[in-house]
Amino acid sequence: MDDNQDNQIGRARVADTPELEEYYARLAKFGSGALWTVANEIEPWYPQPKSVPMLWRYEDLRPLVVESATLVRGDDAGRRVVYLVNDERKDVSAAVGLLYTGIQIMNPGESMTAHRHAASALRFVIEGSGAWTIVDGDRLQVGPNDFAITPNGTWHEHGNEADDNFVIWQDGLDIPLVNALDANFYQVHPELHQVPGKVPNTSILMHGSGILKPARRSWTKPYSPLLGFPWDVTREALVNLAKVSDGTDYDGVIMEYVNPVTGGSVMPTMGAHMQLLAPGQQTKAHRHTGSVVYHVAEGRGHSIIGGYRFDWQEHDIFCVPSWAWHEHANDDPNNPAFLFSFNDFPMIRSLALDAEEEYDSNGGHQDIG
Ligand code: GTQ
User: Fold this and answer.
1) Within-domain flag for 6
2) Distance of CA 174 to CAs 141, 296, 351, Å?
3) pLDDT-based confidence at residue 108 (cuts at 50, 70, 90)
4) pLDDT tens, position by position, 203-253
5) Residue 75, domain CATH
6) CA of 48 relative to ligand 1 center, distance in Å
7) What local confidence, expressed as pLDDT, does residue 120 receive?
8) Ligand 1 pocket mutation pick from 173, 177, 187, 227 by most atoms within 8 angstroms of CB
9) Is residue 353 a part of any domain in this protein?
10) Minimal-distance CA residue to ligand 1 atom 7
11) What is the reported pLDDT for 360?
12) 11 is a domain residue
């Protein structure tokens, strides 16, 4: 921000004097302060995220994640996760804004105990067959690039039924948000494990057709009854949309994972998207309120975020802080790139805090919010 802009009527512009400093000291004794000493900082002209743009290379982290599988037992760790923390958000364990993310590994045949919390969680599977997660009794089977949710308050436990491979997946949670609101709760399941229902993937069988929904069945919970979103269906949907649409200027062909009952976001606090960048495509730059964590599902390319270039390849994870300019490019001239992402947009929207601007290379910005 240009601090000079604060030297104007309408902004706080009181100069310190010995008399005022002495007055401030007396206010502080009573748990108080003068607004004009903090006003410009707490009411910035536009969002001033602490988070910085970052990219975490899977190549760097995978060996360390694999090492964790020999260092600690799942039963001792709760979940065996290497979490990704923003350089400027270590105090709240956030990857960006108020979003948490981590890379979880499970050994062959291993399972984690059931628990629930007020925070909402999602998974994006990176590698390995045999992964499952039981969400409120529904045993979901997931594979690479599948997306799954464990909404706030649902009992969940994870496992790997393969004999000979790890499962590695990315977790995304709104833990920093829920903690910022002082609203987090955590419970270990009294039996440590749930009894799964008879038919695995019940939520997908019931709600996953994509074009039909069960008649006369009400669903009133604030999250999607569909808990798993398989990669093959997702990828095909994007490829099909790309046949008939050039997509958006800023994101290429992009689709949101939705609650099939409402068409809205999958959970009340976090939404998720998959986007396709056509071979060689370069998007325009924009910025908006809300924080985003990306996972490269397929392909290679780069993004320019807040003026920094980040080259990415498969399974790299990167973040876009709120109000940071960003644009994406698929650097492969022959193949599409697919980016998974999750965000806090449902929260931003429900609080009517959404704003967006298009980057104008002449230096000006156009408000398109
Ligand atoms: O599986 O619910 O990465 O509670 C961090 C906290 C995963 C989980 C994490 C969690 C979970």
Assistant:
1) no
2) 23, 20, 16
3) very high
4) 999 999 999 999 999 999 999 999 999 999 999 999 999 999 999 999 999
5) 2.60.120.10
6) 28
7) 98
8) 173
9) yes
10) 171
11) 85
12) no
